[in-house]
Amino acid sequence: MTVLEGPRLRHIHRRLLEAYGPCGWWPAETPFEVMVGAVLTQNTAWLNVERAIHNLREREVLSAPALLALPLQELAAAIRPSGYFNVKATRLRHLCQWYVEHGGHDGLAAWDTAALREGLLGVHGIGPETADDILLYAFGRPVFVIDAYTRRIYSRLGLIAGDESYDTLRQAFELALGPDEPLFNEYHALIVRHAKVSCSARAPRCASCCLQQGCARRLPREF
Predict the structure, then answer these.
(1) Collapsing DSSP states into helix, strand and coil, what is residue 34?
(2) Which residues form the domain of 167?
(3) Nearest to 30 by CA among 181, 143, 134
(4) Does 44 share its domain with 128?
(5) Helix-then-strand count for the chain, H and E
(6) CA end-to-end span of the chain, whole Å?
(7) CA geometry: angle at 154 spanning 148 and 160, to 5°?
């Protein structure tokens, strides 16, 4: 079982917040737009997601009923900038069907977090990370999102092995930090920012890293 220490995690959060300031993530006008973005961001950069969402907004179809009414080929064409557009169009269609069948945001907001997570995971094409993005950012639930950036940073810090299962890491972070939706919201955004700015996969900028003092795997040649 992976065990993380709350004080250490909070210290890392403070260092990231001092370095980058509040990130104000997730950028969306409505909770449903967050859900759409969570599907579109699979295996692509956020800039591409923004282009796809812009196309949907221009067509005035950024709602579940409108997307369901849109022919699948037209939906795929609209979200083409996000990549894997045929696959994602099908996934969006399944998500919209599930969303409408269960009363939309108001109906689903009445579900407890465990039931809502289970329901999302039952939708074709919705995996743990996408489900937790939706839970945290669209429904304001205290769920800690685990992504490749989290694994990279915290394995380099020596706090995790990096190959743990998704739920093992999610539960470890949640247990260490306690249920805190605003903290989880900002923390995940800061992790993403740090991974892109400093702790990249191939060429990490260790010399300027705000976490270098506690990093167990920093690159010796830079010190």
Answers:
(1) helix
(2) 6-23+144-214
(3) 134
(4) yes
(5) 12, 0
(6) 34
(7) 100
Q: Is 198 helix (H, G, I), strand (E, B) or coil?
A: coil
Is the pTM value of this prediction over 0.90? yes
Could you give the number of structural domains in the chain? 2
202 DSSP assignment: S
The single residue listed with the structure tokens 């108001």 is: 106
The CA-based diameter of the chain, rounded to the nearest angstrom, is 58
Q: Is residue 222 part of a domain?
A: no
DSSP letters, 72-128, are HHHHHHHTGGGSSHHHHHHHHHHHHHHHHHTTHHHHHHTS-HHHHHHHHHTSTT--H
Residues 149 and 94 both lie in one domain? no
d(CA 217, CA 82): 34
pLDDT tens-digit map of 185-210: 999 999 999 999 999 999 899 998 99
Residues 161 and 128 both lie in one domain: no
CB 9 within 8 A of CB 1: no
d(CA 153, CA 162): 9
d(CA 195, CA 16): 11
pLDDT tens column, 55-88? 999 999 999 999 999 999 999 999 999 999 999 9
Distance CA 15, CA 157 (A): 13
